[in-house]
């Protein structure tokens, strides 16, 4: 089986993997910031709940979380699971998982800002919202780009875990084709796609990091 023929058959799977990747980032990046705010909240019950959420998301396998999100509505509320729900469950599972990791990255970035900058902003008459948006957030973004890049690269590879919910992303389709034609070529093509995808992501994130290196 030729390389081009395999690549053509994997086309739909590539789009599926790409959709998981993009939608997960769209939801998890802002959600992670909200979780980080909750983690730093002065309201103790909120802080404890957020800490528990982060602990569960980081302390249990992503595969298990996907299964809980998928089967949870049925076993908890008796809601029948449709075939289309596998895609939504995949996005929900990935988003809440990665939001926990991004939240801790954001928190570290925020806490890395010198306290003196908060005090200076207060002297200048800035509100807390203005201080964060105009002073803290731009510096935080610069600090968190490298660790966020690592998580984004991991996300590219983790998209293959959607197979546990019977969602036909690229790796699942590659395995099906490999079994049907008794050839390792589909798996090789899938691996090449992941490598190229990660290379592009790393290149883009590196350009962003250099763009933000305004101190140099």
Automatic annotation (TrEMBL):
- Record bears the keyword Membrane: yes
- Protein's membrane topology: Multi-pass membrane protein
Identify the domain of life: Bacteria
Q: Got a GO cellular component term for this one?
A: ATP-binding cassette (ABC) transporter complex
Keywords attached to this entry: Amino-acid transport, Cell membrane, Membrane, Transmembrane, Transmembrane helix, Transport
Q: Where does it reside?
A: Cell membrane
What are the transmembrane regions? 15-37, 49-73, 85-103, 184-205
A GO molecular function assigned to this protein is: transmembrane transporter activity
Domain ABC transmembrane type-1, by residue range, is 14-205
Query: Single Gene Ontology BP term?
Result: amino acid transport
Q: Does the keyword Transmembrane helix apply?
A: yes
> What's the main place this protein lives?
membrane
Family per record? Belongs to the binding-protein-dependent transport system permease family.
Q: What name goes with this protein? A: Amino acid ABC transporter permease
């Amino acid at each position: 089986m030729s390389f081009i023929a395999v690549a053509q058959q994997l086309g739909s799977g590539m789009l599926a993997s790409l959709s998981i990747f993009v939608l997960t980032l769209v939801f998890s990046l802002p959600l992670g910031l909200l979780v980080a705010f909750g983690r730093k909240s002065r309201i103790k019950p909120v802080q404890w709940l957020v800490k528990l959420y982060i602990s569960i998301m980081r302390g249990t396998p992503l595969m298990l979380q996907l299964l809980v999100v998928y089967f949870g509505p049925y076993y908890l509320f008796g809601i029948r699971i449709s075939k289309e729900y596998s895609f939504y469950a995949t996005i929900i599972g990935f988003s809440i998982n990665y939001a926990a990791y991004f939240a801790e990255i954001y928190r570290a970035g925020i806490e890395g800002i010198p306290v003196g900058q908060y005090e200076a902003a207060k002297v200048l008459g800035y509100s807390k919202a203005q201080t964060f948006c105009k002073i803290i957030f731009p510096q935080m973004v610069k600090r968190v780009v490298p660790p966020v890049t690592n998580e984004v690269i991991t996300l590219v590879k983790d998209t293959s875990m959607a197979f546990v919910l019977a969602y036909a992303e690229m790796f699942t389709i590659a395995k099906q084709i490999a079994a049907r034609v008794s050839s390792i070529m589909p798996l090789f093509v899938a691996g090449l796609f992941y490598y190229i995808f990660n290379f592009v992501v790393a290149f883009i994130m590196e350009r962003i990091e250099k763009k933000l290196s305004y101190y140099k």
